[in-house]
Amino acid sequence: MSTVADCYAAYPKAMISYGVNEDEHAGEQFYTENIRLLAHQLIVDQTQSVGEL
Which class for 41: exposed (0-12), middle (13-18), buried (19 or more C-beta within 10 A)? Predict the structure, then answer.
């Protein structure tokens, strides 16, 4: 079983890289941004597509 410290240490390895530099990783926003966009569109106008994500 992993400890909390192990999980924090492994987190940078699990983040999606978007650039060539070591600090260019998608953070926690990457995983929630698409859901936020879909939820917002559902609240604003259920008859139209959210568009390209």
Answer: middle
